[in-house]
Amino acid sequence: MATMLVFKMPPFYKAKESPEEWDAEYEDLFKQIATFDFPRHYFDREVFQDRTIKQHLHQDKLLRYSSLVQSTCQLQDGLSRMIACVTLLCKDTLRTNDNFAARWMMASAAVRKKHALIGIAAACSVAHDLNEARILCSEELRVSRLSDDGRVLLNLFSSISRQDTSCNPTEPKYFPSTIWDRTRSSHANSSDEVEKLVLNYIIILRTKLISIALDNIVRSFFGLELSEIKLIKHASPQTGSPSSDAFQQALRNVVQTVHGKEEYKTFKAETKAAKKDLNSRRFSRCTECGKEAESRSAFQKCIACAKISREVLYCSRDCQEANWKTSHKLICGKPLDFDLAFQSAIIPTQSSKRPSDSFSSPKAAAGFNRPLALLEQMDLLQSTPSLDYYARRSVCTGNEDPSGIEFPEHIRTHFLEHRKKAMTTGDPRSAALICDCLLWHTECHKSTGLSRDKIIEQISGEYSIPVTNLQLALEEFDELRSLFPARPPAALILAHLDWNLAYVRGGSHDQ
Ligand SMILES: [Zn+2]
Ligand SMILES: [Zn+2]
Q1: Distance, CA 208 to ligand 2 centroid (Å)?
Q2: Which ranges carry the MYND-type domain (predicted)?
């Protein structure tokens, strides 16, 4: 039988309330685990524990694993975009060749220490399992290590940064680790289901925690708001780690022996209060589009999955159908095994990323008379709601086939916002931003045969804005875009300008 390894983890609510004390407790724990082969013991303990849990808890863990893979992927994607944006925005503000890496290296160890602690504590206070996962990151999430040498943090970034950000990542990137890589390689070919899940669960939890911590360290460093990590409500009443009764008993004994009965009582009460707070932040969401449910009963359940007590929710019939095609048919109504859990997480959710809401013509605001060209555009969009806009190769309508344009998700959201405003009110600034997005599209896809002049002419006609006015606005946007090597559409940059403002306000805090 595996050695029973029981620690009293510094409670997660302490990370928020008294981060320094919490961090000191963790430092003690790190010293303890450094004296023996921690990864092996930890792994054996988890395997032992998982072999004793009931089958439905094992299924729950597989589902949680699958959703961890997916959310970590999204998190890392957002992180690399944020770094790119912050770096360029600070270039904009300071008018120097400064970037994030240089600023971090230039900061003093004391400044780095402050932000490292804020970032790590914020990440660990998100949820129980993330707090406890800090013990799996004894190399990475050490405040002293991150502050003494600025390169430590930058190396963590480079291990997850992606060269190509034009498409969505399908798998998270992992942080190499001298202590875990050995355990990983010795069990890499294990065909034992429990061992496979335990090992991969450890790795993904580590990856997620480090990614959230990095995100928060950068945000704190630039004076931005810390990220709010959403917690997903699972159908089963089970939250936290699926510990067996024997394990809970052992934990209680240790805490009582080490800290006394009174302290144990306080510990229990605080944990209960913190759990309550945690549960109030959980929400149910549509498996396909991610839309949050006001109440769980408002969403439809997959019936085949409900039969095996797995809750899969959808906001609409369309979402259910789309999800079926991309991934759900793989796992519907079937008990999961490790490979299925992994596959269902990494299937590219390209189509699922596009909300299926159809184009509905917005009503024109009083005083805005839509030109015929705009009405024609709206007609075209209504017939193919999956497309975002139609560009014409010539301004004469008639026999030509207009090109349907589809924007990638991170641009689409901003494009649609301005499209709606322009179509409703004829707002010239929004129309210019639409135009800028279309021009960006032609720059990226030179083969479409669309020309800059024609697009400007088209938008000018659709929203009755004189070409010269439109060109003036576009010149301004061009200048903004030129600050970014990838020259993203101005709508995207402007959407991130609140970061810029936050940065200017908090600009002096790394002196
Ligand atoms: Zn949905
Ligand atoms: Zn199903």
Answers
A1: 26
A2: 286-332
